[in-house]
Amino acid sequence: MFFATPCHRTGAGDMIVKPLRSIPKEVTLTTGTVAANGSPDRSISSRIVGLISAGVATSRAELARTLGVSPSTVSLHVQELLESGVVTETGAGESRGGRRPRLLQIRDDGGHVLVADLGGTHARVAVISLASEIRMVQEIDVDVAGGPERSLDTIMANWSDLSGPWADSSPLHGAAIGLPGPVDIEAGRVESPARMPGWHSFGVAEYVRDQLGVPVLVDNDVNLMALGEHFAHGAALRHSVTVKAGTGIGCGLIASGQLHRGATGTAGDITHSRVSAAGSTPCSCGKLGCLETIASGAAIVRQLRERGLDVRTTADIVRRAQDAEPEVTSMVRDAGRHLGEVLCTVVNFVNPDAVFLGGALSTLEPFVAMVRSQLYEGCHPLVTQQLLITRTTTGPEAGVVGAGRLILQHVLPERATTP
Ligand SMILES: [Zn+2]
User: Fold this and answer.
1) Does the pLDDT at position 347 exceed 80?
2) Rounded to the nearest whole angstrom, what is the distance from the C-alpha of residue 281 to the centroid of ligand 1?
3) 35 CA distance to ligand 1 middle (Å)
């Protein structure tokens, strides 16, 4: 589903009319119960809100089936949610033999959340309704090397600008930010980021929360991209691996419909896997021979410069590869082969439904073709039998879409169950 918003602005202030994607829907299979003492279990309200928000169950009968509770219990909770203004009835769905069921959805006029996807030199900031629609999105220049306060102040100033039309009539319920480094989710900060001077252990969530006065969540940018991309492919997808191959390399894993962060939040960090082909090349993490040192955009730039070519950025690589320069194309292909080799282990181990390739290098066919061929050659046939290997479809919006999912999952149930 697509939703047309008034405009889309670039960092230069140009206004571009652009249809924007709604936040994809999520499958959240849970089993609800009525509290042992017979009183209504408020957690059921949270689950109902989650299922309606995800588009997984939008009628009372579907909710009862999915939650495993009686229709009368669902009706009781739905009535509470209707009266509290969290959900609304939108019309009649398809009949399964009896009366056509009334459909439910989250009320769009009930507020908004703010999201940002921060990269090394830019950020995408967006306003998202409680009904999961992107109301406005904008790309702005933000240099993370300028430190956390400056970067976050810039993002918040743009949020204020973007959300202006709704500020009075639509309450702000929360914010989420994707950060380009390892994130301590609980503490809401990045830990030992490679290219973010001044950010180590800075309380990002706390800083923004103090300014906005609402719940704030932070996560790794690739995790959010994985969330956004996974749920863009519908409820049938269960397990997916999303790779971001740009100046750096990142990877996010969705298992059984849930983002898998691991014990310390670094799950999916394939970039610092040691590969023999990298020899003892020093990596930004301080170790030697990481995948990043031979398969990232930064690595290709370094290697081409060592050969005397005038390239400075990953965008230079993309442009010259699109012009089919043999030396650049060959190195892009090598990068795809090295990434594919590491991904083989991941894909054999995880057995996902899909591998999504994002980031600037994934716009290059020689890169994608090499990753794909490595996976087909290096994985067990049962693993690749039905494996979808494709470029990401959410494009530059993947991060803000995922950030929207993250914060809405947090604030909607809270709002629905607040007495
Ligand atoms: Zn490393």
Assistant:
1) yes
2) 10
3) 49
